[in-house]
Design a protein that fits this description.
This protein is mostly helical and about 70 residues long. It has 2 helices and no strands. The longest helix has about 35 residues, at about 15-50.
Amino acid sequence: MQLLMEVAVKQDTFPLSFVAVYAVGFMAALIIGSIAWSKSKEMSSSRNAATTPDPDPEVKSEDKSD
């Protein structure tokens, strides 16, 4: 029992390397996700500008008077 208590006391801190890997991974995911999100918004806005219909289309009517 004494041995188990000593092991528990010695491992009371989480290794710094694990914290560093998780922190760097989170920051990378945040940065890469933000760049991808902004690029997708930029692409969709430019794509929609080219295909947006004219709000006042010119209507040509044919007068068929006999």
